[in-house]
UniProtKB/TrEMBL annotation:
Lineage: Eukaryota, Metazoa, Ecdysozoa, Nematoda, Chromadorea
SUPFAM superfamilies from the UniProt entry: TPR-like
Protein name in UniProt: Uncharacterized protein
Gene Ontology biological process terms in this record: intracellular protein transport; proteasome-mediated ubiquitin-dependent protein catabolic process
PANTHER family attached to this UniProt entry: AMYLOID PROTEIN-BINDING PROTEIN 2
Record GO terms (molecular function): ubiquitin-like ligase-substrate adaptor activity
Matching Gene3D superfamilies: Tetratricopeptide repeat domain
Domain of life: Eukaryota
GO cellular component, one term: Cul2-RING ubiquitin ligase complex
Length: 282
């Protein structure tokens, strides 16, 4: 009787063989591969990358619907970034192609004016996910375009609640400010800060459902830190720390807030507090 360990090894070996064979025969199996679960499709794309089939892979990833599936595999994001950069180095302007496809999709979608709230949400999530991916990859201009399209979607869909619209706008402002901070576009960041903070105050004054604003406030802090206004930076960093709630704040946000706040506390020579924040982030 084969052991459980032997069965797992056999299953893994068969899966590797199937993935390798599918990658080799991709041109014939392309449409069959598109009905596979996302994680298996990504495994085949990874194998194509390893085999040097960059032209085939690049043509496939230029399809926005395909790349949307790739983005849904969150736990393999590092591998997706590696493949994406390899395609860019190969000469394919994948960042421009995908943002252009997104712009076309948004224009066609909004022109129909027969969408449901679910369809609006799905399109907005795609725009934000692509923008975040490009931001993490340091393709700032393309990322900025995605977030600006996100704002267009929010502004031009009147059949949604004002709570939903304001919350989504606050989130998109946060990511767009991250782009400006990362790309050193501080003039635009200051203008966006005024808009974002005014919207946050308006939302809070109307006694709507509470928001977790740790990631928003830490972007405010980063902007002021980068322009040399350290008092404002420390103030917003402290406000961001106060927003951290173990049940509602993501691990990524907690790490980012602690990391940036510790840097800002150093400007006040609060070394012990900065050290504690770094230890907490680690």
């Amino acid at each position: 009787m084969p052991t459980a360990h032997a069965n797992r090894r056999l299953h893994s070996s068969l899966l590797d063989c199937a993935v390798s064979s599918s990658a080799t025969s991709f041109s014939r199996l392309k449409w069959a591969i598109r009905v596979l679960p996302p994680h298996l499709r990504l495994a085949i794309y990874e194998k194509m990358h390893d085999q040097g089939r960059l032209c085939q892979l690049g043509y496939e990833w230029c399809d926005l619907e395909v790349f949307e599936v790739v983005l849904s595999v969150k736990h393999r994001r590092y591998q997706v970034h590696q493949i994406f950069q390899a395609l860019m180095d190969h000469g394919l302007r994948l960042n421009e192609v995908l943002t252009s496809c997104l712009h076309t999709k948004c224009s066609q979608f909004l022109a129909e004016k027969r969408w449901t709230v679910k369809e609006v949400t799905n399109l907005l999530n795609l725009s934000i996910d692509l923008g975040r991916f490009l931001l993490d990859a340091s393709w700032y201009v393309a990322s900025q375009r995605c977030f600006q399209l996100s704002l267009t979607i929010i502004d031009e869909t009147p059949n949604v609640s004002s709570d939903w619209r304001d919350w989504q706008r606050i989130q998109v402002y946060h990511w767009l400010m991250d782009v400006y901070n990362s790309n050193c576009v501080y003039k635009d960041a200051l203008v966006l800060y005024e808009r974002s903070w005014a919207l946050v105050k308006k939302y809070s004054e109307q006694k709507r459902p509470p928001l977790n604003l740790a990631d928003v406030f830490i972007q405010y802090a980063l902007m002021f830190f980068n322009v040399g206004d350290y008092d404002q930076a420390v103030g917003w960093a402290v406000d961001a720390l106060k927003q951290i709630d173990g049940g509602r704040t993501s691990i990524r946000t907690v790490i980012e807030v602690c990391r940036h706040a510790s840097k800002m506390l150093l400007t006040r020579r609060q070394f012990k507090q900065a050290e504690l924040l770094v230890q907490h982030a680690v």
